[in-house]
Amino acid sequence: MPSTPQVQAAQVIDPSQNIPTISTSTQAQSSIKSHVTTEETINAEILWALKVVCSHYSFNSCHDIADYFALMFPDSNIAKKMSCGKDKISYLVSFGLGPYFQDLLKVKLKTVNDGFVLLYDESLNRELNKKQMDMHVRYWDTDKVVTRYYGSAFLGHATAQDMHEKLCENFHFDGKSVVQISMDGPNVNWALFKLLSEDLQKASEKKFVDIGSCGLHTMHNAFRAGLASTGWELGHLFSLLSWLFKDTPARREDFTSLTCSSDFPLEHCQHRWVENVEVAKRALK
């Protein structure tokens, strides 16, 4: 019988050796799954990263934490697959969660009808041996004032022109949305304020609200002056209440036994009146 191409192909191909069976396919899938992070595991790692940030844990404190989770929860496959070392948490926070929350902040700032305040301050970063300029934004959100960290820029020279370039490079917003610039008082900052004011006037012929280098200090002083004009001497009263129970265990015990409360007066700050709301609430209580 002559050999045909079909017969030759049939002799070369052995279906039993080349066609994957159901069992081999299942084994391959299970092998792949063992090396793929599940969504539940990723969610657990994200939650732990958020806990690290909110509780101000250091990244080094996460060293070998996954091993502890596996020991604490031996019946959890999620805990066994978690890998939350210091390097992974650092990257997860810096390049995963950080950009996500910054995008949310950018969207929020675009919806703020009354504009927002841009705050910046620069100081020496000894770790990097560079000057670090931190940027924050402050805006009115429903029924309260919110201050949020926006980002940081690093400089060698920190002249007004250098800082102006870094602000324009990192702060991607139309200057018309910024109603006031909050800063320290050195001359270089006033020079930067002048440059930013010129940018705003070119874009919209508007001006920033000018209430001094730091609007918060101005508001504190205005609030303090208003209270002083009443003659109530609330600052003196709050200080006395705080001093009455400071380092006095006997008075604290008597107060607790009489009132069944362990909420003692809070310490009053004379130069930050706007932030003494909790002090006043505790005094009324």
Automatic annotation (TrEMBL):
Name of the protein in question: Uncharacterized protein
Taxonomic source organism: Biomphalaria pfeifferi (Bloodfluke planorb)
